Amino acid sequence: MKPFKILLAGLLYLLTFSPVSAQLQFEFEVRPRTEYRHGFKTLASPDQDPAFFTDQRTRFNGLFSDDNITVKISLQDVRVWGNQSQLVVGDGNLTSLHEGWAKFNISPKFAFKVGRQEIAYDDQRILGSVGWAQQARSHDAAILMFQDSTFSGHLGLAFNQNSPRLFSTDYTVKNYKALQYLWLHKDWKQANLSVLVLNNGVQVLNDNGEAVGTNFSHTLGGRFGFKLGKFQINSSAYYQGGKQANVQGTRINALYTGADLTYGVGRGHSFTLGGEILSGNNQMNPTGENNAFTPLYGTNHKFNGLMDYFYVGNHVNNVGLNDLFVKWGMKKSKFNSGIQLHFFTANEAIADEAGKEMSSYLGTEVDITTSFPVTKGVGVAAGYSHMFGSDSMVTLKNAGSTDATSNWVWMMVTIKPSFKIATK
């Protein structure tokens, strides 16, 4: 508990001796989630036993703000119930600093934010907080920000190292070594437009684990949204180029497009029809370059079905994906429910073991979710998902069977009380 005491004492000191109006906010979160998995991420086999477990995120957030400075510190512990003995000596590095940043207002429109922080923009397709994952995602970065009534601009920079060095900048952690991006966003009365330019540098290691250089990929694109009456239209497009993160430095030439149309029926009901295309590599006729689009650091659990078959630590540099989906949602008195139906096909050709081309159809997924508040600061969410996979999915994943039932059930409780202290 010593880190929590130090944090509390420091924040109280800032609040007590601040000469201007200031506010201190504390937020606590306990979020256990129980899951039944039988075909999650990949198709199940007939003789495969299901997985059943509970993992939990415990967080303590402290936020200090005055007229010019905002400081946030977020400590979290992520563990699976029972992964340590009852008489454990240490936490096994399960407790970490999720966020630790400061933001300084240079002027009424410019600000500078530095430290460990979540970075999320637009629909979180390329850069997201990955809030579904208990550990979530944060970056060590510096961001110069501009904000007025209708326009925002962020310039972000990051350079990662294993530890303080006397010479060289070799980096061996499984992460990017350098990141630079520019995000621009403009709002109009019924429309909005975002543009993202991202430069992603990954350290290249040889077979001996030695650094031999840094390869950079480039992502350029944007997202457009337009609202007309009960209709909401969104569309996105991105291009990726540069070099793949390997010794050969294979060239990247990949595309992403996506669009969706939502219609608000009334009484809290809505229907959405949409699709995504992520380019891939052709297994029948390779081009010699990497044509597979990678959504990099996005909240990928949010897309392409909730069972995480695609782009959640998997399906990278593969045959790509076409995802046609329809969604129904209902929000009423804080009670939310939804049903999603995804129809998946490969964007490029799949070859079987004999080298013959297979059907592009991968499978159909159904996701059912619901959430509701129990009382102030306490909420419950649950879901059921079912994947109807094809033989092409079995070949692509090199696992599972179409004869087994592939489903996933989960329930999550979020307890999140907070309070504020203000002074002048």
Features:
Alginate_export_dom; Porin; 18-stranded antiparallel β-barrel; single chain; mainly beta; 424 residues; globular; signal; Alginate export domain-containing protein; 2 helices
Question: Would you mind describing this structure in some detail?
Answer:
- With 424 residues, the protein is mostly beta strands.
- It has one domain (2-104, 129-140, 211-423): Porin.
- 5% of the residues lie in helices and 53% in strands.
- The chain contains 2 helices and 19 strands.
- It has an 18-stranded antiparallel beta barrel.
- The mean pLDDT is 93.
- InterPro entries: Alginate_export_dom.
- This is Alginate export domain-containing protein.
- Pfam families: Alginate_exp.
- Residues 23-391 form the Alginate export domain.
Q: Residue ranges: pLDDT <50 for 5 or more in a row?
A: none
Helix content: under 10%
Gap between N and C termini = 30 Å
Average pLDDT confidence is 93
Question: Looking at the chains present, what oligomeric state does this protein adopt?
Answer: single chain
Structural class: mainly beta
Order of helices and strands: HEEEEEEEEEEEEEEEEEHEE
Domain Alginate export: 23-391
Organism: Flavilitoribacter nigricans (strain ATCC 23147 / DSM 23189 / NBRC 102662 / NCIMB 1420 / SS-2)
Signal peptide: 1-22
Pfam families: Alginate_exp
Quick recap of the structure?
InterPro entries: Alginate_export_dom. The chain is mainly beta.
Structural topology:
Blueprint: H1 2-17, E1 22-38, E2 51-66, E3 69-80, E4 95-105, E5 110-117, E6 139-147, E7 151-159, E8 178-187, E9 191-205, E10 211-228, E11 231-242, E12 254-266, E13 269-278, E14 321-332, E15 335-345, E16 361-375, E17 378-389, H2 391-397, E18 406-415, E19 418-423
Antiparallel strand pairs: 1-2, 1-18, 1-19, 2-3, 3-4, 4-5, 5-6, 6-7, 7-8, 8-9, 9-10, 10-11, 11-12, 12-13, 13-14, 14-15, 15-16, 16-17, 17-18
